[in-house]
Amino acid sequence: MDNLRILVLFRTIVIAGQVITVAFVHGYLEIPLPLLPLAAGIGFLALFNLATWLRLRFPQPVYDGELFAQIVVDVAVFTILLYFTGGMTNPFAGMYVLPLAVSAVMLRRSYTWGIAAITGACYLLLVFSFVPLMSANYEPLYQVKLHEIGEAISLVITIPLIMYFVIKITTTLREHQRLLAQARENELNNERIVQLGAFAAGAAHELSTPLSTMAVVVKELQGRWHTRPELLNELHVISDQLQVCKGTLSNLLASAGRTRMDGGGKLALDEFLKSVVENCRSMRPGVIVTSRWHGTLLAPEIVADQSLRQAIMNLLNNAADASPELVEVEGRWDEQELCIRISDRGQGILPEAADKIGKGGFTTKPPGEGHGVGLMLSATIIRRFGGSINLYNQPGCGACTEVRLPLAPFLVSANS
After folding, report:
1. Average pLDDT, stretch 75-91?
2. Comparing 104-113, 171-180, 307-316, which segment has the lowest mean pLDDT?
3. Residue 2: its H or E element
């Protein structure tokens, strides 16, 4: 589609140049030209270009065969114009190189050779058959000076067009290569996530039994040490952490094999965010987590998607690891979008790690303390819902993780 759009722009420039050239030669140089066939040829090309521009509004893909037919039409019309204006004695005959350059960049080798064969045949036809240009006295016209001026003008027009066209196509190809590399990276991340999901499901089954055993032991210890308040407080912390782990495993097992993990059912958006922060406080009792919420007076009701909850939790845990003393969470929303900023007071993002963060297997944590999958999982989940995630250093110290997420996929009215 991009190639056809460039071809339409290219043809528009050529049509404008043809009109200006005919007007200049016929009016200023006073060389009589067969205006009727020239106007018919240029008019047909203009209508064909308009039809092609309208075709761009349709989503159907553009194949090489269609581009080949487009370039053949350009060569045919250009040949007709040259036939009525001196054939190969016309100094603009050198512009036959333009469709050749276009086809060489846009089309496969077989189609390019086809354009070359058609162009060569048209060139040979014009060597032997053409309507010669006449002077004002209707005598055959061929002045060396005039021919040299025409060739110079032809080069001045042709070279910038070729340069512009090649640069434009090269830029488009680079963009396609970038998108292809990004798609490959996303596919690789998805494969890793599938593998992690399989391992997580197995681990959930294996961990459920020892967690239950630990909960029973803690309950017995609480009964034995009811006279030791300092020990009871520590046992309560352990019991709370075990409940968090069991709840997480229960959600994981209940959600295995499902596309949407509802987790907490339907909640107001602010209540959902508060519950995520409270869960973080329960899991990280030694970390101070502050929160601020800004938005419409009546927060919209959303489906409390468990995968989104986990994505935000991963980001909060990363911030808590970087800054155990303080993590700040700010949430803003309107009718269309939710924005969450998670700020820490750590060392920030190092320049050498900026391009690697979020990719599987890379972590800034010491060996044995991180595996580089938390941020990758969060980014994948957020992008799956049409959102974006951005990490940057804050003025002074620390880093900020900004999440932007459309609310449409989560609104109860849209999912009812």
Report:
1. 88
2. 171-180
3. helix 2-23
DSSP, residue by residue, 227-268: T-HHHHHHHHHHHHHHHHHHHHHHHHHHHTT-SS--TT-EEE
Q: Please write the tens of the pLDDT for every residue from 224-236.
A: 776 677 777 777 7
Nearest to 102 by CA among 92, 88, 112: 112
Q: Is 308 exposed, middle or buried, given 0-12, 13-18 or 19+ CB atoms closer than 10 A? A: buried
Q: How far is CA 30 from CA 25, 26, 88, 397, in A?
A: 6, 5, 21, 75
Would you state the structure tokens that stand for residue 364, as one six-digit string?
């800034």
DSSP conformational letter for 394: P
Which of 58, 74, 81, 160 has the alpha carbon at shortest distance from 119? 74
Tokens linked to 182: 């990004």
Average pLDDT over residues 261-274: 75
Is 215 in contact with 239 (CB distance < 8 Å)? yes
Residue 284 CB partners (closer than 8 Å, separation 6+): 317, 320
Q: What is the pLDDT of residue 257?
A: 46
Each residue of 389-408: b (16+ CB within 10 Å) or e? bebeeeeeebbbbbbbbebe
What integer pLDDT is reported at residue 261 of this predicted model? Answer: 39
Residue 407 one-letter amino acid: L
CA distances 77 to 242, 243, 321, Å, are: 80, 79, 69
pLDDT band of residue 87 (cuts 50, 70, 90) is confident
> How many other CB atoms sit within 10 Å of the CB of residue 310?
21
Q: Residue 48 — pLDDT band, cuts 50, 70, 90? A: very high
Tokens of 63: 């194949």
pTM above 0.90, yes or no: no
Q: Looking at this protein, which amino acid is placed at residue 53?
A: W
Q: Tell me 26's DSSP state.
A: I
> Regarding beta strands 337-344 and 399-406, do their DSSP bridges make them parallel or antiparallel, or are they unpaired?
antiparallel
Give the whole-angstrom CA distance, residue 5 versus residue 337: 33
Instruction: Give domain 266-415's CATH superfamily.
Output: Histidine kinase-like ATPase, C-terminal domain (3.30.565.10)
